[in-house]
Amino acid sequence: MTNKEKARERREKRMQEISLLRTIPYSDHHRWWSSENVAVVTGSNRGIGFEIARQLAGHGLTVVLTARNVDAGLEAVKSLRDQEEGLKVDFHQLDVTDSSSIREFGCWIKQTFGGLDILVNNAGVNYNLGSDNSVEFAETVISTNYQGIKNVTKAMIPLMRPSPHGARIVNVSSRLGRVNGRRNRLANVELRDQLSNPDLLTEELIDRTVSKFINQVKDGTWESGGWPQTFTDYSMSKLAVNAYTRLMAKDLSRRGEEEKIYVNSFCPGWVKTAMTGYAGNMPPEDAADTGVWLSLVLSEEAVTGKFFAERREINF
């Protein structure tokens, strides 16, 4: 058996394990939440976001779906209600790249629910498929996938409700954005070290890194800039998300016990969704599992500032 075949076999076995884990219900002992707890899932009118919203609602939380397109969002809510009676799901329009849209959404959350307990930052875009590596839409990708998560998170943190179980922020990311991955990593060793060192990691450093990439895209020199080689703009956006996850976890760890917010990111895998042209090898139902698990894990088992895939911690 070749190494490639062995890897495929391991992946298929792990997918079977994930499918089995999804069938195991959370017992009352593990259930810290109720229908009074509110989970917001951005970009949840389809794909992984829709499935995360469906599973969280199925576990008994009140779930708010968001989408840029109102009709698409309302159709998604209708679909969930038609699938299963009694799900507590709602919808509000949200464009994560629009500051006024974020402000309006925050006001609505506060007025309607008084706050939220779980934020799943799922909204994202990718314009490359297969072997493509265009950076034509790099600014949109960075604006949506990184700056969108950052701005929504900053707006939602003041609205996250105090709880002995801790509030949760879950960022949907990708292994393509690993700073120290064996493949597809930054060529600049010094920059990798800075982004990996919690004492050196700052929001300014992350922003400066993505700004340098965008500037090189604009002047046509990005190919010699030492950036990731696969899906370069998407990889850079997720590298920034992973770094920001660790930064926010560190900042929020200073809070008191009743105001704890756990922040983690996860890679859902190569999923059969519109973002991959439905070429992935994992169904959204399984891909959503780790995000749901991170949202609901018991506070005594909860970690923060980590990166996960298939319920296992992996390196940034």
The number of E-state strands comes to 8
Question: Segments where pLDDT lies below 50 for 5+ residues?
Answer: none
Helix content: 40-55%
Count, helices: 10
User: Mind summarizing the main beta sheet?
Assistant: 8 strands, mixed
What best-fitting shape do the alpha-carbon axes yield? globular
**Structural class per helix/strand content?**
alpha/beta
Distance between the termini: 30 Å
Q: Please, could you describe this protein's structure?
A:
By secondary structure, the protein is of the alpha/beta class. Helix content is 44%, strand content 12%. The chain has helices at residues 3-23, 47-58, 70-83, 99-113, 138-156, 189-196, 203-219, 232-252, 284-287, 289-296; strands at 38-41, 62-67, 89-93, 118-121, 167-172, 261-266, 307-309, 312-314. Strands 3-2-1-4-5-6-7-8 form an eight-stranded mixed β-sheet, sandwiched between helices. α5 links the parallel β4 (118-121) and β5. α7 runs antiparallel to α8 (232-252). The longest helix has 21 residues, at 3-23. The chain is globular. The two termini are 30 Å apart.
Features of the shown structure:
316 residues; alpha/beta; eight-stranded mixed β-sheet; 12% strand; globular; oxidoreductase activity, acting on the CH-OH group of donors, NAD or NADP as acceptor; SDR_fam; oxidoreductase; NADP; CBR1-like
